[in-house]
Write a structure and sequence with these properties.
9-stranded mixed sheet, mainly beta, single chain
Length: 483
């Protein structure tokens, strides 16, 4: 029997409040989320994304019949890894013969979760067009009922007899069960559309020294195409190797049930070469959301602020560079940097820095990335360009003695300060013509010196300027000159 009319332009899906589902999710789902910096996960635009990585372990209750038959599990993410998907029966009373992933795509994606379930297909005036098991949802609905199989092309709504309406993709299973009745199953799979990264906020305190109030959070993004209810979540910090590629406005809110109290903080432990953070309570992760939970308790930390003028880099050339136009100098900008010492293992993420204005209102002054930082190590970010500070750099001497295999070079750096308070500027130079060099002279004593770095701390008065002169000599051997 076939009911064929003009295809409907709109689809209304109605779930009836009766019956029992063929396969339903249990109350607990375990999610292991891996760090992802994909902008798509955290962007304020709708839709699922194939970024991020998570491992899902769901407990399901399946209503089975004795013998070989088909079962459909719905409410699966849109971008899971079908090759790594596995379902098992802990009690050993059934086994999976074959499985097929049904992806939620196109205009009929909302019906993918109802495949294999009992449905009622309604017309535009509310009459029942077909009732029975939904076999296919594509170019029309294929429904197998007591009086045969019906293909319905023009319909207004689909009512689920089970009382729920699974969303996302579905898994079609052929199962061999030992007996009829409810059976416990464990479903596990990796999926994209889920990820996390650290989010830090530092509020600088008033005073001459550098002190700040430091907040540590985890931002958890869900763009998987489905909601996760009462999920037990573990966050993995680090970078495991991934051998293959794998909506609504995001909500920037603290996850339900969380505070910064010590008893509500994640439990941290080592996991192979990585770090894991197990959240103490189950959380709600709606689709199209970015939730935040604390990583560590808020605390006050010491810090170091630097006005930095830097030239060159740590590049080591294969031979002495004798050309006069090498590394003439950069622009005039002096950048403001912030450094802190990790009080514990800090997973990679972004640090936003605030400071109070004269009214006491916290104002944003810069943001930078913190990489994975072990406890006791330094983490540094660049806040921005200092408004009142400028620099100029000019070469004042250059001489090459090829016979003696030496090169002498000198620079003058002029620093100006248009502000109303004195500033200290760190000048960082990288003598990069050759690895063998010595400081011949300088107008200020270096504050630090390494094989590839030369640093000076220069005091610049308010509304004034300061000048730094220095000279270096490079030396090499005959063999090194020919490299």
């Amino acid at each position: 029997m076939t009911t064929a009319h003009r295809p409907a332009l709109a689809l209304a899906c109605i779930a009836a409040l009766a019956g029992a589902s063929t396969a339903r999710a249990a109350d607990t789902t375990a999610l292991t989320l891996y760090r992802s910096d994909s902008p798509a996960l955290y962007a304020s635009r709708g839709g699922s994304v194939a970024e991020g990585y998570a491992v899902v372990r769901e407990r399901r209750s399946l209503n089975l019949a004795a013998g070989v038959h088909d079962v459909v599990l719905g409410d699966l993410p849109n971008a899971l890894d079908a090759e790594a998907l596995a379902l098992g029966f802990p009690d050993g009373n059934a086994k999976v013969i074959s499985q097929r992933l049904l992806l939620a795509q196109g205009t009929d994606a909302a019906l993918a979760g109802l495949l294999g379930r009992e449905v009622n297909v309604l017309g535009h005036n509310g009459e029942t067009l077909a009732s029975g098991t939904l076999l296919r949802a594509g170019d029309g609905l294929l429904v197998r009922g007591a009086n045969g199989t019906t293909l319905v092309r023009d319909y207004a709504a689909v009512r689920s007899a089970a009382g729920d309406f699974p969303l996302g993709s579905s898994l079609s299973l052929r199962v061999d069960a030992a007996r009829t009745g409810q059976a416990r199953a464990v479903l596990s799979y990796p999926t994209s559309g889920l990820g996390w990264r650290a989010a830090y906020v530092a509020t600088l305190q008033a005073g001459a020294g550098c002190r700040m109030q430091f907040e540590s959070r985890a931002s958890i993004a869900n763009r998987s195409g489905r909601d996760w209810h009462d999920a037990q979540v573990t966050l993995i910090a680090g970078e495991p190797n991934m051998a293959k590629a794998s909506a609504p406005q995001p909500m920037m809110t603290m996850a339900r049930g969380y505070s910064a109290k010590a008893e509500a903080l994640p439990q941290q432990e080592s996991l192979g070469d990585y770090r894991s953070y197990t959240l103490p309570d189950a959380v709600e992760l709606p689709d199209g959301s970015v939730s935040q939970v604390p990583l560590y308790a808020d605390r006050t930390l010491g810090c170091e602020r630097t006005a930095l003028y830097e030239n060159g880099n740590r590049y080591q050339p294969p031979r002495p560079i004798l050309e006069p136009d090498f590394n003439p100098g950069g622009g005039d900008a002096i950048v403001s940097t912030l450094k802190l010492k990790a009080f514990d293992s800090l997973p990679a993420g972004y640090l936003r820095v605030l400071t109070a204005d004269r009214h006491g209102t916290p104002q944003f002054i810069g943001e930078g990335r913190i990489e994975d930082t072990p406890k006791g190590s330094d983490a540094s970010i660049t806040l921005g360009t200092a408004f009142d500070l400028r620099a100029t750099r000019e070469r004042t001497a250059f001489h090459v003695d090829k016979t003696g295999r030496t090169l002498d070079e000198a620079f003058r750096i002029t620093l100006t300060n248009a502000g109303d308070s004195a500033r200290t500027v760190t000048v960082r130079e990288h003598p990069g013509r050759w690895r063998q060099w010595t400081l011949v002279s300088s107008s200020s004593k270096p504050s630090a010196q390494t094989p590839d770095t030369l640093e000076f701390r220069v005091d610049v008065p308010a509304g004034g300027k300061a000048v730094l002169d220095y000279a270096v000599r490079y030396q090499w051997t005959a063999d090194e000159q020919l490299q």
